[in-house]
Design brief:
Elements (H helix, E strand, L loop, with lengths): L3 E5 L2 E2 L6 H18 L5 E8 L3 H10 L3 H18 L6 E4 L3 H17 L2 E11 L4 E3 L18 E10 L5 H10 L4 E2 L2 H11 L4 E2 L1 E3 L8 E2 L2 E6 L1 H6 L1 H4 L10 H6 L4 E5 L3 H14 L7 E5 L2 E3 L14 H7 L6 H8 L8 E3 L1 H31 L2 E2 L10 H16 L3 H22 L1 H6 L3 H22 L4 H10 L19 E2 L15 H8 L1
Parallel strand pairs: 1-3, 1-13, 2-3, 3-4, 8-14, 13-14, 15-16
Antiparallel strand pairs: 5-6, 5-7, 7-9, 10-12, 11-12, 17-18
Helix pairs in contact: 2-3, 5-6, 12-13, 13-15, 13-17, 14-15, 14-17, 15-17, 17-18
Bound molecules: 5'-O-[(L-methionyl)-sulphamoyl]adenosine.
5'-O-[(L-methionyl)-sulphamoyl]adenosine binds next to strand 2, helix 1, helix 7 and strand 13.
Length: 518
C-alpha cells in the first residue's frame, strides 16, 4: 500500500461533542492506526463544520458573534478528541482562511465551467439538515422526518449546480465499483435517490444567511454550507484550482471517507458530482456507519439522554480512553446501529480487557518471575505450537480491516486471547513446575508471551495505551509492522523483574462509578 488517506465527517459546532460524534472519530482512528501498522504514508483528517443558518441562529441566541461561538465550541471538539487519543494529522475548521479562499475558487471554477447557473427558486429549507427538502421528503404533517420541524418556505434567487449532468456517471460508478459504498446494502438506496435527483441550490441569499463564505463577485450570495463543508476533504490537503500542493498530489484521492448513514446522500451524490465537475479522482470507499443509541433510545436533547464521551470517562474514573475506545469500536458490525449502556460497557471491558487479556499477561509474567527470575532461557525458544494460530489471526485481522470490519477484527483478537488462555489452562505451567518439568514449563510461558507480543500489536489500534504498557513489559517494539510479525520476537535473556510487572488494565470499579454518578 503506497499511501492511506482517511477522513471523518466534520461536526457542526452548535453544541458540544456527544458519543455519536465520538463513535465516528474512534472508528476512524482505529482504522487509521491499523493502517499505520501497514503503511508509512498515512494521513487522517477531521475537523468542524462552522458556517450556516444553524450556527448563525444559535450564536445570536447566545449573544455572541458566530466566530466567537465557533472558536469556543471547536475547542470542545479538539479537547474531546485529545482525551480519546484521536491521533489525527490535521484538524480543519471551515472558518480557516485558506479553506474559505479555496472554496471560493472551487465555486468560481464550476461557474466558469457552466456547471453552476443562477435560478429563481422557492423551496422548503430545514435548518437542522441545512438542506432544501421536497414535499415528498416530509412526514404527513409536513415536518422534516429527521428533525420533526416544519421547514421554512424560502424564496430566493440562488446559484444552482447541475447535479443532473452527473447522474448517469455516478450511477455507473456505483454499479461498477461494488465496494465503493460500504456497507454495500446502502448502494441501492443511493441509486434510488439518484433516479429522482434534481439540480441543487448551492448558494443562499445574504439577506437570509450571512454566516457563510461569500460568492466571489456577488455581494448578495453566500456559498451553500454543504458545498463549503464537503470541499474540506481537498482544501485541507492544499487543493487549489490554480495549482495544488504536493500534499494534495500525494494523498488525494481518499482511501476511506467515514461518515454516518444520515449524510450518505451528500457524500455519495453531491460530493461525487463536485469531484467529477472538478475532474478529480474519486475516493476509493465511503463508509456509512450506523448510529449509536443510548439504552436502545435515539439520543436527543429533548429526551435529555445526550451523553458526552468525557462524561463516560469521568463516570468510570478512567485515566485512559482505551476501554471506551474498545467498546465503541466494537459496538456494532460495520454499517449497523450500535448501542451504549453503562452496564454493557462495564461488563464487556471487564471481561475482555481486564479478565481475559490483562490477566493473561499478568499471571504469565508473574510465573516467569516466580519460576525463572524473569529469564527466558534459550531452551524455551523455538517450539511454539501457538505460532500458527497467532499468525493466522494477524492475517484474519488484516483481512477484516481491508473490508472495514472493525468489530469482526476485535472478535478475532479476542478469539486469540481465549485460545491462549485455554493453552495455559491445558498445559498448567504451575503443575509442570511442581513436577519439576522446568524446561516444559518455561516453554509454555515463553510461548504465551510470544503470542502476547502479537496481541499487543493487534490491540494497539483500539487500545493504544494498554498496548504500550503490554509491549513495555515484554520489551517488544510496538512499531513492528504487521507484515513483519513473526511471533518470535522475544529472545533468550532477562525479560522482567517483579517490581516492573503491572496490570495493564484494572476492572472497572462499579461501586466507585455509581457513587460518582449519583
Ligand atoms: N456537518 C455535517 C457533516 C459535514 S461533512 C462534510 C454533519 N455534522 S453532525 O455534527 O451533525 O454530524 C457529524 C457526524 O456525526 C456525522 O457523520 C453523523 O452521522 C455523526 N453522528 C451524529 N450523531 C450520531 C449518532 N448518534 N451516532 C453515530 N453517529 C452520529 O452532519
Amino acid at each position: 500500500m503506497e499511501k492511506f488517506y482517511i477522513t471523518t465527517a466534520i461536526d457542526y459546532v452548535n453544541g458540544a461533542p456527544h458519543i455519536g460524534h465520538a463513535y465516528e472519530k474512534i472508528l476512524t482512528d482505529v482504522i487509521y492506526r491499523h493502517f499505520t501498522q501497514r503503511c508509512d504514508n498515512t494521513y487522517f483528517l477531521t475537523g468542524t463544520d462552522e458556517h450556516g443558518i444553524k450556527i448563525q441562529k444559535t450564536s445570536a441566541e447566545k449573544g455572541v458573534s458566530p466566530k466567537e461561538f465557533c472558536d469556543m465550541n471547536a475547542q470542545k471538539f479538539k479537547d474531546a478528541w485529545k482525551a480519546l487519543d484521536i491521533d489525527y494529522s490535521q484538524f480543519i475548521r471551515t472558518t480557516d482562511e485558506q479553506h474559505e479562499k479555496v472554496v471560493q475558487k472551487i465555486f468560481k471554477k464550476l461557474v466558469d465551467k457552466g456547471d453552476i447557473y443562477k435560478h429563481a427558486y422557492t423551496g422548503l429549507y430545514c435548518s437542522g439538515c441545512e438542506a432544501f427538502l421536497s414535499e415528498k421528503d416530509l412526514t404527513e404533517d409536513g415536518l422534516c422526518p429527521d428533525h420533526l420541524k416544519k421547514p421554512e418556505v424560502v424564496k430566493e434567487e440562488n446559484y444552482f449546480f447541475k447535479l443532473t449532468k452527473y447522474k448517469d456517471a455516478i450511477i455507473k460508478h456505483i454499479k461498477t465499483n461494488p465496494d465503493f459504498i460500504i456497507p454495500s446494502f446502502r448502494a441501492n438506496e443511493v441509486i434510488n435517490q439518484l433516479e429522482n435527483i434534481e439540480d441543487i441550490s448551492v448558494s443562499r441569499a445574504k439577506t437570509n444567511v450571512n454566516w457563510g463564505i461569500p460568492v466571489l463577485g456577488d455581494d448578495e450570495q453566500v456559498i451553500y454550507v454543504w458545498i463549503d463543508a464537503l470541499s474540506n476533504y481537498i482544501t485541507a490537503l492544499g487543493y487549489d484550482p490554480e495549482g495544488s500542493s504536493e500534499k494534495f498530489k500525494q494523498f488525494w484521492p481518499a482511501t476511506v471517507q467515514v461518515i454516518g448513514k444520515d449524510i450518505l446522500k451528500f457524500h455519495s451524490i453531491y460530493w461525487i458530482a463536485i469531484l467529477m465537475a472538478l475532474e478529480l479522482p474519486l475516493p476509493e470507499h465511503i463508509l456509512a456507519h450506523g448510529w449509536i443509541t443510548i439504552d436502545q433510545t435515539k439520543m436527543s436533547k429533548s429526551l435529555g439522554n445526550v451523553i458526552s464521551p468525557t462524561s463516560v470517562m469521568e463516570a468510570f474514573n478512567l485515566d485512559i480512553p482505551d476501554p471506551f475506545r474498545y467498546y465503541m469500536a466494537s459496538a456494532a458490525p460495520c454499517g449497523k446501529d450500535g448501542n451504549y449502556s453503562d452496564e454493557d460497557f462495564k461488563e464487556k471491558v471487564n471481561a475482555h480487557l481486564a479478565n481475559s487479556m490483562g490477566n493473561l499477561l499478568n499471571r504469565t509474567l508473574s510465573m516467569l518471575v516466580k519460576y525463572f527470575d524473569g529469564d527466558i532461557k534459550p531452551e524455551f525458544l523455538g517450539k511454539n505450537s501457538l505460532k500458527e494460530q497467532a499468525l493466522d489471526t494477524v492475517k484474519a485481522v488484516k483481512h477484516h480491516f481491508d473490508y472495514i470490519e472493525i468489530q469482526e477484527a476485535a472478535l478475532k483478537i479476542n478469539e486469540l486471547v481465549d485460545i491462549t488462555n485455554k493453552y495455559v489452562t491445558d498445559n498448567a505451567p504451575w503443575t509442570l513446575a511442581k513436577e519439576g518439568q522446568m524446561d516444559k514449563c518455561g516453554e509454555v510461558l515463553t510461548n504465551v508471551l510470544q503470542v502476547m507480543t502479537v496481541i499487543s500489536s493487534l490491540i494497539y489500534p483500539y487500545c493504544p495505551n494498554i498496548a504500550k504498557a503490554m509491549a513495555e513489559q515484554l520489551s517488544y517494539d510496538l512499531n513492528t509492522k504487521l507484515d513483519d510479525i513473526t511471533c518470535e520476537s522475544l529472545n533468550a535473556g532477562h525479560l522482567i523483574d517483579k517490581e516492573n510487572i503491572k496490570p495493564v488494565f484494572l476492572r472497572l470499579d462499579s461501586e466507585l462509578a455509581d457513587k460518582k454518578k449519583n
